[in-house]
Design goal:
Two copies of one chain form a homodimer. With 368 residues, chain A is α/β, with parallel strands linked by helices. The first copy, chain A, has helices at residues 39-47, 65-71, 89-103, 121-136, 188-197, 211-221, 223-237, 241-248, 257-262, 283-289, 353-363; strands at 4-10, 56-61, 80-83, 108-113, 117-118, 141-145, 155-167, 173-183, 200-210, 269-273, 277-278, 303-306, 312-315, 324-328, 333-337, 341-346.
């Protein structure tokens, strides 16, 4: 449908995948989890069967625009929304909705994170198509992912009554439900109860809505933000949007779309999705998603592995020199090389990479 | 004494310290074990208080001469003896003895391996001085190192009756004994008995002798080799030594000085040495010898160590770029970086580095 617009949220601080990710090269600009293109490029490629490059927008930090444009040459230059300061998701989603509304009053907007991996792309697009259908009727829709573990790092959505059941091409169904409520990251016991109960799904940060419905919801729940966005519209009418963004955006409230709208708006819908989703949250997750040899090493061809198992070797050097990486007698390690850094740690310590980044910041080195 | 000449044996195949060591860059050309100069440079520096650069000779492979000269600019160019083929120690020691004898009929020659570390350099030189004194009297002398473990990788020397006791400057004594016999690498039970018995010392490959006594001994025990060396003398008289070496040396018997002379010659003497000797036989040994932080990491200043202990980090890259090495939650690892290779292994697997080199040879890569 030619009313479908996509907004990809591509910010990020670049700490969890250090040394591959940096402040100037966050996760979505990297190939991770066994794919050979940057996660953002894969995200765009994945939705292009549903829309056109002209209707795909990328919201990113001003300092990341050049690097982001470089990996997406197929998108129009003006479709990159440069946030002069990070203000969480509500301001940039609001800005996108206002901007799209100016060119297409009945636009349906799909908001997607830039840095996730989807195993079943056909199923993913089918879920989005169903969500867009429901959104066209006026609801704000989210995708709920079937939990596979009692994850405490995600928000959850409590699922209510079915709203519709649409058959998919493969015979399965896309089930759309009402939303009882959005729940922020739960403690472990609660997450375990959610997993056992079957009434909760993961909030993967994917939202689908008519642009006019989102601007109305923002006006209702966050009038301060909405007023700023209206000023951007007025500046755009004067041909002066960039300067207005530079001036006004940093003063916007830093607030997530979940908190600003989803936790407050009635009548939300959730499409249950089961399409091999991962947010690739750590090096451990990257290893899980990568192709592996018979002893569970995920390593490039030039690695020499002697009595080594369960290791992730990631070579992101750009100097083009062939370099042997030899692992002898080591197991379940992460070994990541870039031009200016090397990280060695056990896979199960992946969550602690931030500690290394913090140490480097304290030292004032240029490697963060 | 101006009769003292030093011959440093600097060959090596470059496998035990891969990826730092290579066929073209064996161990003696590397800084290892916590010293900041190549082991060979340290070996030369260590003996210079006893002699002059003009009397220090380096016996090395022809393919290593340029790299070896480069780190020893203070030695005369003609003091590098280039072996066109590796023929073990007897031919190159014999060649050295013949060559020195031509310029100094009463020369005393000290033969030293190029790639060992000495903790107490004053004690080391005192032992060499005592050995030279005994050698001047006509004996072939070796240095016997007090064993500290039942090592099965070294040859041993059984010590006989005392020959002399010389006081040292610090009040201790250099004790010189007759040699009962040289013993090749023993099985573990034998090595344990040697350690307990106190009558055996390690053969560290250091030999001290009058050049004329060594040429006589070679003539007696290995007439074939001796005949070749005499031909080199004749060629040298004609100003044609290099061509003769090229032609004759590869046909020499490949035989160690231990087997050719030490195990057969009567009247040998051994000076017991106790001066913090190590042959730096592996990455494990290099870690033992290196300065370490409070959690036993031997690592350069630019390493970031978070909950890491007992690791050896060796950065031998030559591109001059600063590179962070971050170890998080790992213990007792060896991490070695060069321009074209990275090795990660547990310290206790250091003896198995050869397996990696063998794999690389099989693959036909240029990284050996």
């Amino acid at each position: 449908m030619d009313d479908l617009f996509v907004v990809i949220i591509a910010g990020g601080s670049g700490t969890r995948f250090w040394p591959a990710s940096r402040v100037s090269r966050p996760k979505q600009l990297l190939p991770l989890g066994g794919i050979d293109e940057p996660l953002l490029a894969a995200t765009v490629r994945r939705v292009l069967p549903l829309t056109q490059p002209e209707r795909v927008f990328i919201a990113t930090g001003a300092h990341l625009v050049d690097a982001t444009r470089a990996i997406l040459p197929e998108l129009p230059s003006e479709n990159f929304l440069a946030e002069p300061a990070a203000r969480n998701t509500a301001p940039c989603i609001g800005w996108s909705a206002h901007r799209i509304l100016r060119v297409r009053p009945d636009a349906v907007v799909v908001v997607l994170p830039a840095d996730h991996i989807i195993g079943d792309e056909v199923g993913f697009r089918a879920a989005l198509t169903e969500a867009a259908r429901v959104a066209r009727e006026g609801r704000i829709v989210t995708i709920g992912l079937t939990p596979t573990r009692p994850e405490t790092g995600y928000g959850y959505i409590e699922v209510g009554a079915p709203l519709s059941t649409e058959p998919r091409a493969d015979g399965s169904e896309n089930q759309t439900f009402s939303v009882v409520r959005f729940v922020e990251k739960p403690p472990l016991a609660t997450a375990q109860a959610y997993l056992a109960g079957g009434k909760h799904v993961w909030n993967g940060g994917m939202f689908i809505f008519r642009a006019d419905r989102m601007t109305e919801a923002l006006a209702k729940h966050t009038p301060e933000l909405s007023a700023m966005l209206t000023k951007l519209d007025e500046a755009a009418d004067r041909g002066d949007e960039a300067a207005a963004v530079e001036e006004l955006f940093p003063a916007a409230p830093s607030i997530s779309i979940d908190y600003a709208v989803m936790e407050r708006e009635p009548g939300l819908a959730v499409v249950r999705g089961d399409f091999g989703w991962s947010d690739v949250g750590s090096w451990e997750s990257a290893w899980e998603l990568s192709p592996k040899d018979p002893t569970n090493n995920a390593a490039p061809d030039h690695a020499v592995l002697e009595d080594a198992s369960g290791n992730l070797v990631h070579d992101l050097r750009t100097d083009g020199r062939t370099r042997v990486v030899a692992l002898l007698g080591v197991h379940d390690l992460v070994v990541v090389e870039t031009d200016d850094a090397l990280l060695v740690m056990p896979r199960h310590r992946a969550q602690d990479v931030r500690a290394v980044v913090e140490t480097l910041k304290t030292k004032g080195t240029p490697h963060v």
